[in-house]
C-alpha cells in the first residue's frame, strides 16, 4: 500500500499515479474550488439582494396601504366640507330671498295702502 490517503475521486489502483499527477490535480482542484467559491459568493449576494428587495417591497406595500387609508380619509373630509359649503350657500340664498321678499313687502304694502 502507498502512503497517500484514501481519495474517493481517484479510481482504485491509481494511488501510485496520483502522487505523480498530484501537482496537476491540485491546481485543477484549487481552480475548481475557487470557481465554486466564487459562484457561492455570487449566489449569497443574489440572495441578499432578493431579501433586501423583498423588504423594500414590504415597505412599499405598507406605504401604499397607509396612502390608501389617508386618501379615503381625505375623500370623506372633502365630502363633509362640500356638504357644509352647500348648506352655507343655501342658507345665504334663502336669507337673500327672504330679505328681498321683506323689502318688496315693505315697499309694495304702503304703496297699495296709499292708493286706496
Key words describing this protein structure:
single chain; 116 residues; mainly alpha; 0% strand; rod-shaped; V_SNARE_CC; membrane; transport; protein transport; Synaptobrevin
Helix content: over 70%
Based on CA inertia axes, which overall geometry fits? rod-shaped
User: Strand content of the residues, in percent?
Assistant: under 5%
- Unreliable residue runs: none
What is the radius of gyration?
46 Å
H and E order: H
Number of helices: 1
Overall pLDDT, averaged? 86
Count of the separate structural domains: 1
Overall structural class, as computed from helix and strand content, comes to mainly alpha
| Major sheet details | none
Task: Give the number of DSSP strands.
Answer: 0
Ends apart, CA distance between termini: 149 Å
Pfam families: Synaptobrevin
Domain V-SNARE coiled-coil homology: 28-88
Protein name: Synaptobrevin
Organism: Neurospora crassa (strain ATCC 24698 / 74-OR23-1A / CBS 708.71 / DSM 1257 / FGSC 987)
Would you kindly provide a written description of the structure presented here, covering whatever features stand out?
The chain is mainly α and about 120 residues long. It has one domain. The chain is built from one helix and no strands. The protein is rod-shaped. The N and C termini lie far apart (about 150 Å). The relative contact order is 0.03.
Amino acid at each position: 500500500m502507498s502512503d497517500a490517503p484514501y481519495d474517493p475521486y481517484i479510481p482504485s489502483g491509481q494511488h501510485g499515479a496520483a502522487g505523480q499527477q498530484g501537482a496537476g490535480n491540485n491546481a485543477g482542484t484549487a481552480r475548481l474550488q475557487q470557481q465554486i467559491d466564487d459562484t457561492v459568493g455570487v449566489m449569497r449576494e443574489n440572495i441578499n439582494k432578493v431579501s433586501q428587495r423583498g423588504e423594500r417591497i414590504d415597505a412599499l406595500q405598507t406605504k401604499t396601504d397607509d396612502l390608501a387609508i389617508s386618501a379615503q380619509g381625505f375623500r370623506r373630509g372633502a365630502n363633509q366640507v362640500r356638504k357644509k359649503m352647500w348648506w352655507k350657500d343655501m342658507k345665504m340664498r334663502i336669507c337673500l330671498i327672504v330679505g328681498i321678499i321683506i323689502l318688496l313687502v315693505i315697499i309694495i304694502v304702503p304703496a297699495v295702502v296709499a292708493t286706496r
